[in-house]
Amino acid sequence: MKKGRIVTIILAITVIIGQLTVVDYSNLSWENNMGSFLGILSMILLILSTFFSIYKTQNKQETLNS
Hints:
Blueprint: H1 2-22, H2 30-65
Helix pairs in contact: 1-2
């Protein structure tokens, strides 16, 4: 299960890199880059939630083992 979560994090980072290549750097307004900005934000939130899920699972396992 942990490997699947780590793969999810890696895929999210890859999508962020892809979204950064699509951003119109000559005009960083919201209208021109809304899709890219929302994609980056959603991937950051996905990474954070997956990280906290891994952390909570490890804490739960440590509690059960002690």
